[in-house]
């Protein structure tokens, strides 16, 4: 995946944060290669992207104070902690859905991937973060107006196909590599 694809995602995220929440953020221009998101933020959100030849994911990490600032106006409408929790998940999910939809319609993304379907967004708190399988991608960030970072991991890769052309005894560990050990240790 090229850096310009992640730059497009960061631009889409920044533009939609301003449109939806009237908050400024600036895309960072430094990207690093990564194999899975390793964020320690208070909130994580993920949306899957796929078509007939590729699959991927966008994962964002936001601190608790950034989420509180983003949602400060709407949080006044809730009356219970349960409502607050649901409002945070719904709002961050809608942000991911809107950003991903805008991203997949950008010219350079359409040129590279034709079309990408979106999954339902998933949102977690730091305490209930799932295991993320290894997927080569890029890490980047936005600098939020309060100086904190909104972390982004983006991976869009061709599907891997497990094929054994002989009876060499190939196994799932040959296909999954280190992920099999990580997955089994998490069970």
H and E order: HEEEEHHHEEEEHH
Strand content: 25-35%
Coarse structural class: alpha+beta
Q: Helicity, in percent?
A: 25-40%
Alpha carbon gyration radius: 18 Å
Number of helices: 6
Shape: globular
Count of strand segments: 8
From the N-terminal CA to the C-terminal CA, the straight-line distance is 31 Å
Query: How does the major sheet shape up?
Result: 8 strands, antiparallel
Overall average pLDDT: 85
Unreliable parts: none
Note down, in words, how this protein is organized:
The chain is of the alpha+beta class. The protein contains six helices and eight strands. Strands 1, 2, 3, 4, 5, 6, 7 and 8 form an eight-stranded antiparallel β-sheet that branches. Helix 1 crosses helix 3. It is globular and about 55 Å long. It starts with a helix and ends with a helix.
């Amino acid at each position: 995946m090229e850096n310009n694809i992640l730059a497009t995602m960061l631009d889409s995220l920044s533009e939609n944060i301003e449109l939806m929440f009237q908050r400024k953020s600036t895309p960072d221009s430094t990207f690093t290669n990564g194999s899975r998101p390793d964020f320690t933020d208070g909130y994580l959100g993920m949306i899957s992207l796929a078509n007939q030849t590729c699959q991927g994911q966008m994962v964002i990490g936001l601190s608790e104070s950034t989420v509180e600032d983003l949602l400060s106006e709407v949080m006044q409408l809730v009356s219970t902690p349960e409502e607050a929790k649901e409002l945070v998940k719904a709002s961050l999910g809608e942000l991911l859905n809107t950003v991903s939809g805008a991203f997949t319609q950008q010219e350079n993304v359409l040129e590279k991937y034709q079309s990408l379907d979106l999954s339902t967004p998933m949102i977690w708190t730091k305490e209930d973060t799932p295991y993320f399988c290894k997927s080569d991608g890029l890490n980047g960030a936005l600098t939020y107006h309060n100086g904190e970072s909104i972390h982004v991991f983006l991976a869009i890769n061709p599907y891997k196909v497990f094929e054994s052309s002989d009876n060499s005894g190939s196994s799932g560990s040959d296909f999954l590599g280190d992920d099999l050990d990580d997955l089994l240790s998490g069970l």
